[in-house]
Design a protein that fits this description.
The protein is an alpha/beta fold. It contains 14 helices and twelve strands. The chain binds flavin mononucleotide (FMN) and benzoyl-formic acid. Benzoyl-formic acid binds next to helix 9. GO terms for molecular function: FMN binding; L-lactate dehydrogenase (cytochrome) activity.
């Protein structure tokens, strides 16, 4: 298969998916203006290379919360990979393993945690939304521990799923035959069955997500697992400080790919203050609009330890299943390895604040 750029994978994926599914994958909340804003924030950052450094061998490898990765790259949690391909998360896990990338499995994965683990040869983390029914969370934590997942990621930017105009217009619902198989069917039923003018996903979240949780509840979760705990969707330095106080091991600095709070700060703009606030006391992952190897370098220069990539993994999956995801990851890794060489930064630790300028 000829190498495709991520942009080509996107175009190919669009042609293969039903329009309402495409709209759900690609869409954003409210004005959808944050989709381009996230990209613009990264585009404003320019790289400043060093020269005459020995870059004959570049090593993109890192260890993140005990997970060994071929590069500082993970796949962001995304619900229902079967929307993109019948094999769903099992295919994604195979590809992530082959590339040495982390896979974060969504609580609303369409394949079982155990089947995904069986297909994975690399590290897996499990992402949770805080459902009203706490027994579901306790059971998922136990299953993740038993299946060898290496961290838990609590998404904290979604007390409910935001208004997303495309999904509302399409009356989007999770198609029959695709289910969040790791959660009781009764808890998930509102996600199915469309209603004109309303997104079933948004409706389901209002019914089943616990919007009352606070930092005290985080302590409850912290006590129930020895796995590292990650919070996803932090943008305020004050929250980063609180997270450190509550024993959180890493933060995913993210505006949820422009799908939650409309006009929320792009992650790349929020990151510097958060780096200052945590002062090295927890790991930081930049999420949103990562599309090039150079974006990984920019994130590291800003002070992140790694990045998450979201939609491009689903483009690869829609294009050609596991092979497509593996190729998307390979394109990003090859680009990053080249950026390391051209930046004069043969190790991940060589990227620092002097490697970027804002313009
Ligand atoms: C189709 C889709 C489903 C998503 N599902 C989840 C989810 O279940 N949990 C979660 O924390 N974030 C979810 N996200 C957000 C991603 O984890 C990530 O923050 C975002 O996609 C990153 O932006 P990018 O797509 O520009 O890389 C989802 C995103 C998409 C596109
Ligand atoms: O679409 C999303 O971004 C998301 O987080 C989600 C939440 C609930 C169900 C499906 C996806």
């Amino acid at each position: 298969m000829a190498a495709l750029t991520l942009r080509e994978y996107r175009a190919e994926a669009e042609g293969r998916l039903p329009a309402p599914v495409w709209d759900f994958l690609e869409g954003g909340s409210g004005t959808e203006s944050m989709l381009s804003a996230g990209r613009a924030a990264l585009d404003r950052i320019r790289l400043r290379p060093r020269c005459l450094v020995d870059v004959s061998v570049c090593d993109p490898g890192v260890t993140l919360l005990g997970s060994r990765l071929a590069a500082p790259l993970g796949i962001a949690p995304m619900a229902y990979h079967q929307l993109a391909h019948p094999e769903g998360e099992v295919a994604t896990a195979r590809a992530a393993g082959a590339a040495g990338a982390l896979l974060t499995v969504s609580i609303f994965a369409s394949r079982t945690l155990e089947d995904i683990a069986a297909a994975a040869s690399g590290p897996l983390w499990l992402q949770l939304y805080w459902l009203r029914r706490r027994e579901t969370l306790v059971e998922l934590v136990r299953r993740a521990e038993d299946a060898g997942y290496q961290a838990l990621v609590l998404t904290v930017d979604a007390p409910r799923v935001a208004y997303r105009p495309r999904d509302a217009r399409n009356g989007f619902a999770v198609p029959g035959g695709i289910r969040a198989v790791n959660v009781d069917a009764a808890v998930m039923s509102a996600s199915h069955g469309g209603a004109a003018g309303e997104s079933a996903i948004a409706r389901h979240s209002k019914e089943q997500f616990d919007a009352s949780i606070t930092w005290r509840d985080l302590a409850w979760l912290r006590e129930r697992t020895s796995l590292p705990l990650v919070l996803k969707g932090v943008l305020a330095p004050e929250d980063a400080e609180l997270a450190v106080e509550y024993g959180v091991d890493a933060l995913v600095v993210s505006n949820h790919g422009g799908r939650q709070l409309d006009f929320a700060i792009p992650a790349a703009d929020a990151l510097p203050e958060i780096v200052d606030a945590v002062g090295g006391r927890c790991r930081l992952i930049l999420d949103g609009s990562i599309r090039y190897g150079a974006d990984i370098a920019k994130a590291l220069c800003l002070g992140a330890d790694a990045v998450f990539v979201g939609r491009p993994a689903l483009w690869g999956l829609a294009h050609s299943g596991s092979a497509g995801v593996a190729d998307v990851l390979r394109v990003l890794l090859d680009e990053f390895e080249e950026v390391m060489a051209l930046m004069g930064a043969p190790r991940v630790g060589d990227f620092g604040n002097s490697g970027i300028v804002h313009h």
